[in-house]
Automatic annotation (TrEMBL):
GO terms for cellular component: extracellular space. The keyword Signal applies. The keyword Secreted does not apply. It comes from Microlunatus parietis. This is Peptidase M14 domain-containing protein.
């Protein structure tokens, strides 16, 4: 196999054994400074007294779902910064757990939503375990660190983790117990797993979101990390740019600072240049795109799930540790963005919601039913240059969609023996993708209205 950058042996061992673990028993370090980078603060900490099962095995075995439940109970007991709560049940009855971390304790939902919130969705595909492991480690490291920078960060920001597919985890399948790919269900919200994630977005109003995945490497597509921002053309332009900045300048930068390689998800690279895009479109039903439409600065992280060099080929545990470390550090990059640009994120996510509401009220802008940020659709049926003011649902359509609209946080009002869904609300860019006949993944064919 082709050679790639290899860290010095000592550094590799330190980085890959626990990612960047911390100790609950460590003495506070007031001289470190409350404003130093989070990545630096965690990397400088000693080893943890609460290793995950994956760490205990040194990457030889993955943490099982029952082990994770026990581990999170232990973490909840070990730190007042942690709260673990059940926010739903899977098809097979397993708990969908939300882990919140804050200092001195996690804030209530409404209070947290008024400040800054970072959300990590951990392995929505059940056969992609490294995201789950990265989330367990990062939740632990934030909860147990005594570093002043970490404490200061958690006083101002709530960090959330959700393991979004326990049934797939247990079965080692991509989909849930019904075989549904949950990462294609964020519009229809037919699965309990997608509903749980959407309710967290609706209620906690996260400023940033990082969706942790794995991919199968092949020729011209084989970096340690692949990353991507929301590409749907209805996403607020300012949030699109912030998401791309997080993806390229924070998550990717954090990973490559450790000597790993990085690329853009869906782009094949030959001789250093992209030559073909094979994935990474603007589908609103995929979480990174949905996040942007919900006025969240979101991104996708994918780490290679197979050996990338001869050393990894010879040692599966080394491959596993690299997979976790890459996802961990991508997540850490997102946290670094929040630390450095917290006020900007709070301001811009709120402003995006206001801009969308205003555009819906005055009929400005364009509605796109296809295309992506690097491709403008050319079919007239894929673009609405004179946006409707809203959609009328029949009574039957409304009864069908009422729970779905609620989970998205979309409001409606009685009108003409049916319901009016106005575009003058924060989800203005999402509503046509749910209700219009021109939307590839729309749920009903509602009637677009010129006047409301």
């Amino acid at each position: 196999m082709k050679p790639r950058f290899v860290l010095a042996a000592a550094a590799t061992a330190a980085l890959l054994t626990t990612a960047v673990a911390v100790s609950a028993q460590a003495e506070p370090n007031p001289g470190a400074g409350a404003d130093r980078p989070i990545a630096q603060a965690l990397a400088a900490a000693p080893g943890s007294p609460l290793p995950t099962p994956f760490e205990t095995s040194n990457g030889a075995t993955w943490t099982s779902h029952p082990q994770s439940l026990r581990y999170l109970r232990s973490l909840d007991s070990a730190s007042e910064r942690v709260k673990v709560e059940n926010i739903g049940r899977t098809t097979e009855g397993r708990p969908l757990q939300l882990v919140s971390v804050g200092a001195p304790a996690p804030k209530p939902v409404a209070e947290a939503a008024q400040g800054s919130v970072a959300l990590f969705v951990c392995s929505v595909h059940g056969d992609e375990p490294s995201g789950r492991e990265a989330c367990l480690q990062l939740a632990r490291d934030l909860a147990l660190s005594t570093d002043a920078a970490v404490t200061r960060f958690l006083e101002r920001t709530t960090v959330l983790f959700i393991n979004a597919n326990p049934d797939g985890w247990v079965a080692d399948t991509r989909g849930n117990a019904d075989g549904t790919d949950v990462n294609r269900d964020y519009l229809a919200a037919a699965t309990p797993e997608a509903k749980a994630v959407l309710k967290v977005i609706r209620d906690w109003k996260p400023d940033v979101l990082n969706d942790l995945h794995e991919y199968g490497p092949r020729e011209h597509y084989d970096t340690d990390l692949l990353h991507l921002w929301p590409r749907n053309r209805n996403v607020d332009a300012r949030l699109h740019d912030l998401a791309r900045e997080m993806s390229e300048e924070y998550a990717s930068a954090q990973v490559t600072s450790l000597g790993y390689t990085s690329g853009v998800y869906g782009q094949l690279i030959k001789d250093g240049e992209p030559y073909l895009q094979v994935a990474g479109d603007g589908q609103a039903r995929i979480l990174r795109n949905y996040a942007g439409l919900a006025n969240v600065v979101g991104m996708l992280s994918e780490t290679a799930n197979a050996p990338l060099d001869d050393a990894e080929e010879a040692d599966p545990a080394l491959t596993n540790r690299r997979r976790v470390t890459v996802n961990y550090n991508s997540a850490l990059g997102s946290i670094q963005l929040v630390q450095e640009q917290r006020d900007t994120l709070i301001t811009e996510t709120a402003a995006a919601a206001e801009r969308q509401t205003e555009a819906g009220a005055d009929g400005s802008g364009v509605i796109y039913f296809a295309g992506q940020d690097d491709m403008i659709p050319t079919d007239a049926d894929q673009v609405e240059p004179h946006p409707m003011c809203g959609y009328r649902l029949t009574g039957e359509q409304y009864e069908q969609l009422k729970p779905t609209l609620a989970v998205h946080g979309i409001s409606s009002q009685a009108a003409d023996e049916g319901r009016l869904v106005p575009l003058a609300q924060p989800d203005r860019g999402l509503i046509p993708l749910l209700l219009d006949a021109r939307s590839e993944y729309g749920l009903v064919d509602a009637t677009p209205l010129e006047t409301c």
